[in-house]
Design brief:
This protein has about 325 residues and is α/β, with parallel strands linked by helices. The chain is built from 8 helices and 14 strands. It is globular, with a radius of gyration of 20 Å.
């Protein structure tokens, strides 16, 4: 029997204001956010930080099972197919039944992550305002304004629409679907994580990838983002942070699945490596060459991806933030 519990630390000021939620360790081996949160908690408790408006809730360890095991997941990826369920099957389902109502009671979410490869911190932004069925949204301006003040200048959007496109292609390739894994892998909602769920209940949300897992600077990136968010939203009496300059904005537009365990990359790719039209990305097990069709970037390359799972994503320059 699981003996884990869930912990949230909340502070409420005397004055009304936004309700902010900050998450760490949604993936158990991504502890930069946890460290940044614990630093802020200690400073609030020491009265070095004073809340003057609104409320803020911190969850230093969102997935305690994965955190205890120092691995990405406990029993499945919490940041996929996130939503309450009447019949929890994996430990992450129990987390969702606690976490989703908590998100629904807040207005803004800052979810702090990190990544495996060496690289620069970046923030994942949601869609533009729209009334589409996939991810309707009305808070794009507020979300982008916060993104520009987290202290990083690399931005990525287009996640859920690209994931759904990949799911449609995967469903067509699979044909009959039988196993639970196949059901999840071919469900467009499997692309829904914390930020997507937060938007679905009326809030806005950002995922900040704070840097490489073990980079000693990554917790400082998380701490700065939290402090900037508190100042920007008016939770603390501090100067409003300025929007970053020299923006690099990308939009994910396609995802390519691994078709066979012997599919291989042409070299050890890293996220944000540039691509020119014709560049060789990898080779399928049958010898088929996979080339970049247009100039752009490779994102989230995963040489260890399972068959039928995301092998890599493709992104291109995005002018959306240039006019902000």
């Amino acid at each position: 029997m699981q003996t884990h519990h869930f912990k949230a630390v909340s502070y409420q000021s005397l004055r009304p204001g936004p309700r902010l939620l900050v998450l760490g360790a949604v993936h158990g081996n991504e502890t930069s956010g946890t460290k940044g949160i614990l630093r802020v908690l200690s400073e609030i408790d020491a009265r070095l930080i004073n809340l003057v408006a609104g409320s803020v809730t911190f969850v230093p360890i969102t997935n305690p099972l994965a955190y205890e095991r120092a691995q990405r997941v406990g029993e499945r990826n919490l940041n996929r197919n996130l939503g309450p369920t009447a019949e929890p099957k994996e430990f992450e389902d129990h987390i969702a039944n606690w976490l989703c109502p908590l998100m629904a009671r807040h207005d803004v979410l800052l979810d702090l992550h990190s990544f495996q490869a060496v690289g620069r911190a970046f923030v994942m932004v949601g869609p533009e305002n729209n009334a589409d069925e996939l991810e309707p949204f009305t808070h794009a301006e507020a979300e982008v304004a916060l993104a520009l003040r987290l202290g990083v200048n690399r931005f990525v959007d287009g996640w859920l629409s690209t994931y759904a496109r990949g799911v449609a292609r995967r469903r067509a390739a699979l044909g009959a679907i039988s196993s639970r894994e196949q059901q999840l892998d071919t469900d467009p909602r499997y692309g829904v994580g914390t930020t997507e769920y937060m938007r679905s209940v009326g809030g806005y949300a950002l995922t900040l990838e704070c840097g490489q897992h073990n980079d000693p600077e990554s917790p400082a990136v998380a701490y700065r983002a939290i402090m900037n968010t508190l100042a920007h939203l008016g939770h603390i009496d501090a100067p409003k942070p300025q929007a970053v300059a020299a923006i690099e904005a990308l939009r994910i537009y396609d995802v390519i699945d691994k078709a066979h365990e012997e599919d291989s990359f042409s070299r050890p790719w890293s996220s944000f490596d540039p691509l020119q039209a014709g560049d060789l990305i990898g080779t399928r097990h049958d010898g088929t060459l996979v080339h970049a069709e247009t100039p752009g970037y490779i994102l989230f390359p995963n040489a260890k991806a399972g068959v039928g799972h995301e092998w890599f994503y493709l992104a291109k320059a995005n002018s959306r933030l240039s006019a902000v």
